[in-house]
Amino acid sequence: MSDFLRSTTSGSTDMAARKEALMNSIRSEIALLSVQELMNKGTEKCFAKCVTKPGSSLSNSEQTCLDRCLDRYMDAFTLVSRTYIGRVSKERQEPS
């Protein structure tokens, strides 16, 4: 009987570990998709703003505009992400 209880307990521990691993994998995939979406949207918006007459190459002013635009886009994303993570962390620490 004690073997049965041990196997059930270790089985649920193993199941919890697999569930946690799956959740971590899903979180990683979501994070990757978010970064890809960020890059795609940033590229679209900055291209539309900075490249008014597409050609075979970018002018110096277009390159500078794209660099600055993407930097601002990333800075804004970083600020929002840090604020959101801080808020979620704070909510998790507060007693229910």
UniProtKB/TrEMBL annotation:
Listed name of the protein: Mitochondrial import inner membrane translocase subunit
Any one annotated GO CC term: mitochondrial intermembrane space chaperone complex
Entry keyword Zinc: yes
Taxonomic path: Eukaryota, Fungi, Dikarya, Basidiomycota, Agaricomycotina
| Gene Ontology biological process terms in this record | protein insertion into mitochondrial inner membrane; protein transport
Q: Which Pfam families match?
A: zf-Tim10_DDP
Q: How does it sit in the membrane?
A: Peripheral membrane protein
Q: Please report the stretch or stretches of sequence annotated as the Tim10-like domain.
A: 26-85
Subcellular localization, as worded in the UniProt entry: Mitochondrion inner membrane
The function of this protein is: Mitochondrial intermembrane chaperone that participates in the import and insertion of some multi-pass transmembrane proteins into the mitochondrial inner membrane. Also required for the transfer of beta-barrel precursors from the TOM complex to the sorting and assembly machinery (SAM complex) of the outer membrane. Acts as a chaperone-like protein that protects the hydrophobic precursors from aggregation and guide them through the mitochondrial intermembrane space.
Q: What is known of its domains?
A: The twin CX3C motif contains 4 conserved Cys residues that form 2 disulfide bonds in the mitochondrial intermembrane space.
One GO MF term: metal ion binding
Q: Which family does it belong to?
A: Belongs to the small Tim family.
- Main subcellular location of this protein, as a coarse class: mitochondrion
